[in-house]
Amino acid sequence: MEFSGTFELEDTTTEEVWLALSDPVMIESALPGCEFLVRVDEDDVGFDALREEHADRDVEPTSDPEVIAERAFEEGGRYAAVMQISIGPVNPTFETTVTIDHREQPEMEASGEGSAGDSSFEMTSGMELSETDDGVGVDWKTEADVFGRIASMGQRVINPAANQVVKRFFSSIQDEIREREIAEGGEVEAAESAEESGDDRGIVDRILGRSEGR
Questions:
Q1: What's residue 45's pLDDT?
Q2: 87, 152, 164, 198: which sits with the fewest CB atoms below 10 Å from its CB?
């Protein structure tokens, strides 16, 4: 199955949107039904242990580039998430692992898999940011192989559910950008100033997803 579309975030810039989308905490907060989204190093992810460890955590999204740089998505990094998604008459909770395959502003690509009872999926996805007259356009696409009970519902049921999740996600990102005053640009300007002065190039490079030698 293939899913794609463009979502426009108003009154913002590519740098500000990239800053927001670099933060796993922001993504966790914006994803509908997401219990947690955390970095993992082990191949065999213990979701029961992760649930117990992160059940009562209280981590807020931020517009501070130094904080985001410390926890930002990393190319090659592996992340675990638990998400409940409404698809037709069912509400499966997927245990999911995602790997960031490519990350360099303005593009990010990822691949992953998830399972929920008698259903599972494998997917690859990507997004690219571009400036528009009113803000930033996010072109996104996902290719997914779906198995089990959910697959039997067909694309006519799955497509609207997937599009609704994406719409709610980007709407939440828009709200978060405004609420955290990322759109004011103060923190981004501070990062850009650090880059220009050379005071802390590492912070800026980590936010933008740059690797050494590029």
A1: 93
A2: 198
CA 149/CA 165 separation, integer angstroms: 19
Across 121-126, average pLDDT: 97
Q: In what order do the strands lie in the sheet with 135-148?
A: 2-10, 135-148, 119-131, 107-116, 93-104, 78-84, 34-40
pTM for the full model?
Answer: 0.82
Q: What's the fold here for domain 2-187?
A: Alpha-D-Glucose-1,6-Bisphosphate; Chain A, domain 4 (3.30.530)
61-65, 74-78, 150-154, range with greatest mean pLDDT: 74-78
Enumerate the domain spans of the chain: 2-187
Are the CB atoms for 32 and 161 separated by under 8 Å?
no
Q: What is the mean pLDDT of the chain?
A: 86
Is the CB of residue 145 less than 8 Å from the CB of residue 124? no
Q: Which residues contact 120 (CB under 8 A, 6 or more apart)?
A: 113, 114, 146, 147, 148
CA-angle at 75, arms to 34 and 110, nearest 5°: 50
CB atoms within 10 A of CB 118: 11
Q: How far apart are CA 91 and CA 87, in angstroms?
A: 6
In this model, does residue 214 exceed pLDDT 90? no
pLDDT above 50 for 186 = no
